[in-house]
Specification:
Layout lengths: L1 H7 L5 E5 L8 H11 L4 E8 L18 H18 L6 E4 L7 H7 L4 E2 L5 E2 L7 E8 L19 H5 L14 H4 L7 H9 L8 H4 L32 H4 L9 H9 L6
Bound molecules: iron/sulfur cluster (SF4) (2 copies).
Amino acid sequence: MIGEFLRAEGIDCFGELLRRELVFSDEKRLSRLEERMGRVESAVLFLMPYFAGEAPTNLSYYARPLDYHGFVKELSERLKGYLEERGEALGFALLADTSPLQERLCAARAGLGVLGDNGLLIHPRYGSYVFIGAILLSRPIAPAPAVKEGECLRCGACARACPTAALREGKREECLSHLTQKKKRTPEEDALIRRGPYRWGCDLCQTVCPMNRKAEVTPIPYFLKDRLESLLPEHAALPEEEFACRAFSWRGREIIEKNLSVKGEET
Ligand code: SF4
Ligand code: SF4
């Protein structure tokens, strides 16, 4: 039944896990959820691909569509209505980003891809350009056997492409995705941003990955509408309603202006 719901939403990649197969990262969050929905007995992991085939610019691919948190909220409401219409008294929590699960690991266990050396989940069709969602359920479901397709090629292209020590030395605090969201940066951190093209996020370890070469365009309509091509000064001045729908809004408008004021080495 959950599968039928997801397919109707354009979500064609999902897999089930029983509780004993789930890996939790936040037991406190899990306890709070279980107070509301009952004991978690299983979960359906699903993917939300966001790639639309465009060329790289200064804005990471994940931030080009409308913020996926908006999609997840709408999806949760629709699932609630779907279950109510069918008289299903099933406790559930549909989450992404705020899930108590180790999402990448659980998604890999559910057969939704492999864990790459760039730290990301890589799906055979959508590559690493995916958001991971989970529907925690208060009832055990019969999981389909997870099919593992391929492996990270361990080619090292992601580490070579990384302009910081984030991948080679495991210094995640130097990852440009993190630094472009940081409000107070050192001159050295600004210099790391200056070296590359990105002013929000960073896709360098994804665009070079051979397993992303044939990444398919997302089949989910939400991720194809109102896309931005690049980050521009006018985006910091969007009306509140439009600004709040963007993935880069959560750190405020000033950080957008600040990032765009970092001039590239070529300028
Ligand atoms: S997102 Fe950019 S900075 Fe971060 S690990 Fe990948 S290539 Fe390195
Ligand atoms: S670039 Fe190579 S090593 Fe890195 S994640 Fe992709 S396949 Fe794996």
